[in-house]
Write a structure and sequence with these properties.
By secondary structure, the chain is mostly beta strands. The chain is built from 1 helix and 17 strands. It has a single domain, classed as Jelly Rolls. About 0% of the residues lie in helices and about 45% in strands. The two termini are about 25 Å apart.
Length: about 210
Protein backbone atom coordinates (compact mmCIF):
# COMPACT_ATOMS: atom_id res chain seq x y z
CA UNK A 1 0.00 0.00 0.00
CA UNK A 2 1.48 3.34 -1.07
CA UNK A 3 1.04 6.75 0.62
CA UNK A 4 -2.61 7.83 0.35
CA UNK A 5 -3.78 10.58 -1.94
CA UNK A 6 -7.01 11.90 -0.49
CA UNK A 7 -9.77 12.46 -3.01
CA UNK A 8 -13.50 12.52 -2.49
CA UNK A 9 -16.58 11.20 -4.28
CA UNK A 10 -17.41 7.94 -5.94
CA UNK A 11 -14.79 7.36 -8.60
CA UNK A 12 -12.51 9.81 -10.39
CA UNK A 13 -9.91 9.43 -13.07
CA UNK A 14 -7.28 11.81 -14.51
CA UNK A 15 -6.16 11.97 -18.20
CA UNK A 16 -3.37 13.63 -20.41
CA UNK A 17 -2.70 14.78 -24.13
CA UNK A 18 -2.24 17.39 -26.94
CA UNK A 19 -3.37 20.84 -28.09
CA UNK A 20 -6.63 21.65 -29.79
CA UNK A 21 -7.68 23.59 -32.86
CA UNK A 22 -10.41 26.28 -33.01
CA UNK A 23 -12.77 23.69 -34.53
CA UNK A 24 -13.16 22.19 -31.05
CA UNK A 25 -14.82 25.33 -29.67
CA UNK A 26 -18.27 23.85 -28.96
CA UNK A 27 -17.80 20.09 -28.90
CA UNK A 28 -16.21 18.19 -26.01
CA UNK A 29 -14.97 15.40 -28.28
CA UNK A 30 -15.11 13.99 -31.77
CA UNK A 31 -15.66 10.39 -32.83
CA UNK A 32 -12.38 9.06 -34.18
CA UNK A 33 -13.56 5.51 -34.78
CA UNK A 34 -17.01 3.86 -34.75
CA UNK A 35 -18.05 0.30 -35.49
CA UNK A 36 -21.48 -1.21 -34.87
CA UNK A 37 -24.34 0.45 -33.04
CA UNK A 38 -22.92 3.43 -31.20
CA UNK A 39 -25.13 6.37 -30.28
CA UNK A 40 -25.28 9.56 -28.25
CA UNK A 41 -28.15 9.88 -25.77
CA UNK A 42 -29.21 13.35 -24.65
CA UNK A 43 -30.67 14.13 -21.23
CA UNK A 44 -34.10 14.63 -22.83
CA UNK A 45 -34.03 11.10 -24.25
CA UNK A 46 -33.23 12.03 -27.86
CA UNK A 47 -30.66 9.72 -29.45
CA UNK A 48 -28.53 9.93 -32.57
CA UNK A 49 -26.27 7.46 -34.29
CA UNK A 50 -22.54 8.08 -34.06
CA UNK A 51 -20.26 7.89 -37.06
CA UNK A 52 -16.66 8.91 -37.64
CA UNK A 53 -16.07 12.67 -37.15
CA UNK A 54 -19.38 13.18 -35.33
CA UNK A 55 -19.15 15.68 -32.47
CA UNK A 56 -20.09 14.80 -28.89
CA UNK A 57 -21.32 17.37 -26.38
CA UNK A 58 -21.61 17.97 -22.65
CA UNK A 59 -24.59 16.20 -21.12
CA UNK A 60 -24.62 13.39 -23.67
CA UNK A 61 -24.16 9.71 -22.80
CA UNK A 62 -22.23 7.61 -25.30
CA UNK A 63 -23.80 4.17 -25.58
CA UNK A 64 -22.32 1.17 -27.41
CA UNK A 65 -24.30 -1.92 -28.42
CA UNK A 66 -23.34 -5.57 -28.14
CA UNK A 67 -20.78 -5.54 -30.97
CA UNK A 68 -20.07 -1.81 -31.09
CA UNK A 69 -16.93 0.15 -30.30
CA UNK A 70 -16.56 3.93 -30.26
CA UNK A 71 -13.33 5.91 -29.83
CA UNK A 72 -13.45 9.56 -28.79
CA UNK A 73 -10.74 12.18 -29.17
CA UNK A 74 -11.30 15.02 -26.70
CA UNK A 75 -10.30 18.58 -27.53
CA UNK A 76 -7.41 18.49 -25.03
CA UNK A 77 -5.94 15.47 -26.82
CA UNK A 78 -7.36 12.87 -24.41
CA UNK A 79 -8.46 9.58 -25.94
CA UNK A 80 -11.20 7.23 -24.74
CA UNK A 81 -12.09 3.98 -26.52
CA UNK A 82 -15.35 2.41 -25.36
CA UNK A 83 -15.87 -1.35 -25.47
CA UNK A 84 -19.16 -3.05 -26.42
CA UNK A 85 -22.14 -2.60 -24.08
CA UNK A 86 -20.73 0.47 -22.37
CA UNK A 87 -22.07 3.83 -21.25
CA UNK A 88 -19.98 6.97 -20.73
CA UNK A 89 -21.58 10.30 -19.78
CA UNK A 90 -19.88 13.67 -20.29
CA UNK A 91 -20.91 15.47 -17.11
CA UNK A 92 -18.94 18.69 -17.63
CA UNK A 93 -16.21 19.74 -20.04
CA UNK A 94 -14.37 22.95 -20.88
CA UNK A 95 -11.16 23.44 -22.80
CA UNK A 96 -10.61 26.45 -25.06
CA UNK A 97 -6.91 25.90 -25.69
CA UNK A 98 -5.74 27.99 -22.74
CA UNK A 99 -4.18 26.20 -19.77
CA UNK A 100 -5.19 28.61 -17.04
CA UNK A 101 -6.96 26.47 -14.44
CA UNK A 102 -10.41 27.02 -15.95
CA UNK A 103 -10.29 23.82 -18.00
CA UNK A 104 -12.18 20.77 -16.72
CA UNK A 105 -13.29 17.30 -17.75
CA UNK A 106 -15.76 15.32 -15.62
CA UNK A 107 -16.84 11.96 -17.05
CA UNK A 108 -18.91 9.10 -15.62
CA UNK A 109 -18.42 5.47 -16.61
CA UNK A 110 -21.90 4.09 -15.92
CA UNK A 111 -21.32 0.64 -17.35
CA UNK A 112 -18.87 -1.41 -19.41
CA UNK A 113 -15.23 -0.85 -20.25
CA UNK A 114 -12.85 1.65 -21.76
CA UNK A 115 -9.22 2.21 -22.62
CA UNK A 116 -7.89 5.73 -22.26
CA UNK A 117 -4.85 7.95 -22.70
CA UNK A 118 -4.59 11.15 -20.70
CA UNK A 119 -5.01 14.62 -22.20
CA UNK A 120 -3.75 18.09 -21.31
CA UNK A 121 -6.34 18.70 -18.59
CA UNK A 122 -5.27 15.72 -16.53
CA UNK A 123 -1.58 16.35 -17.08
CA UNK A 124 -1.51 20.02 -16.16
CA UNK A 125 -4.37 20.33 -13.65
CA UNK A 126 -5.01 16.82 -12.36
CA UNK A 127 -7.87 17.74 -9.96
CA UNK A 128 -9.77 19.22 -12.94
CA UNK A 129 -10.23 15.79 -14.51
CA UNK A 130 -12.58 13.24 -12.95
CA UNK A 131 -13.80 9.92 -14.21
CA UNK A 132 -16.52 8.70 -11.89
CA UNK A 133 -17.92 5.25 -11.19
CA UNK A 134 -19.94 4.03 -8.22
CA UNK A 135 -17.04 1.94 -6.90
CA UNK A 136 -13.97 4.23 -6.80
CA UNK A 137 -12.28 7.47 -7.80
CA UNK A 138 -9.42 7.11 -10.27
CA UNK A 139 -6.73 9.77 -10.45
CA UNK A 140 -4.25 9.48 -13.32
CA UNK A 141 -0.72 10.79 -13.61
CA UNK A 142 0.09 10.94 -17.32
CA UNK A 143 -0.84 7.44 -18.29
CA UNK A 144 -2.50 4.82 -20.44
CA UNK A 145 -5.01 2.75 -18.53
CA UNK A 146 -8.16 0.69 -18.83
CA UNK A 147 -11.31 0.29 -16.77
CA UNK A 148 -14.21 -2.09 -16.64
CA UNK A 149 -17.22 -1.46 -14.45
CA UNK A 150 -19.97 -4.07 -14.00
CA UNK A 151 -20.64 -5.40 -10.52
CA UNK A 152 -17.18 -4.12 -9.54
CA UNK A 153 -14.50 -1.84 -10.96
CA UNK A 154 -11.36 -3.37 -12.49
CA UNK A 155 -8.54 -1.00 -13.43
CA UNK A 156 -5.31 -1.90 -15.22
CA UNK A 157 -2.33 0.32 -16.05
CA UNK A 158 -0.48 -0.01 -19.34
CA UNK A 159 1.83 2.95 -18.73
CA UNK A 160 2.25 5.47 -15.91
CA UNK A 161 0.25 5.41 -12.68
CA UNK A 162 -3.31 5.79 -11.47
CA UNK A 163 -4.73 6.34 -7.98
CA UNK A 164 -7.88 4.53 -6.86
CA UNK A 165 -9.81 6.17 -4.04
CA UNK A 166 -13.09 5.41 -2.32
CA UNK A 167 -14.55 5.31 1.19
CA UNK A 168 -11.83 2.92 2.36
CA UNK A 169 -8.90 5.15 1.34
CA UNK A 170 -6.55 5.34 -1.64
CA UNK A 171 -4.05 3.09 -3.39
CA UNK A 172 -1.70 3.61 -6.34
CA UNK A 173 -1.62 1.24 -9.31
CA UNK A 174 1.61 1.26 -11.29
CA UNK A 175 2.52 0.15 -14.78
CA UNK A 176 1.69 -3.53 -15.30
CA UNK A 177 -0.62 -3.71 -12.29
CA UNK A 178 -4.37 -4.26 -12.13
CA UNK A 179 -6.74 -3.79 -9.20
CA UNK A 180 -10.31 -4.80 -8.52
CA UNK A 181 -12.59 -2.58 -6.42
CA UNK A 182 -15.61 -4.62 -5.27
CA UNK A 183 -17.61 -1.74 -3.74
CA UNK A 184 -17.40 1.92 -2.73
CA UNK A 185 -16.51 1.00 0.86
CA UNK A 186 -14.04 -1.81 0.03
CA UNK A 187 -10.40 -1.08 -0.77
CA UNK A 188 -8.70 -1.97 -4.09
CA UNK A 189 -7.44 -5.55 -4.34
CA UNK A 190 -4.35 -6.35 -6.46
CA UNK A 191 -5.20 -8.93 -9.13
CA UNK A 192 -2.17 -8.58 -11.41
CA UNK A 193 1.30 -7.55 -10.25
CA UNK A 194 4.23 -6.08 -12.24
CA UNK A 195 5.79 -9.53 -12.59
CA UNK A 196 2.73 -10.78 -14.46
CA UNK A 197 2.47 -9.48 -18.01
CA UNK A 198 -0.74 -7.75 -19.08
CA UNK A 199 -1.85 -8.91 -22.55
CA UNK A 200 -0.61 -6.23 -24.97
CA UNK A 201 -3.94 -5.90 -26.78
CA UNK A 202 -6.30 -6.34 -23.83
CA UNK A 203 -7.75 -3.00 -22.69
CA UNK A 204 -9.35 -4.46 -19.56
CA UNK A 205 -9.25 -7.64 -17.59
CA UNK A 206 -12.30 -9.94 -17.67
Amino acid sequence: MRPPLLLSGAATLVLVGIAMSPAWADAAARVEFAVGQGRALRADGVTRALQRNAEVFVGETIVTGRDARVALRFSDGGYVALQPESRLRIESYHFDGAVDGGERSYLSLLKGGLRAITGIIGRVHKPNFRLITRAATVGVRGTEYALRYTDQLVASVREGEIVLCNGSGCNSALQGEAYAVPASDVGPVLVVGPAQALPPDAPVLP
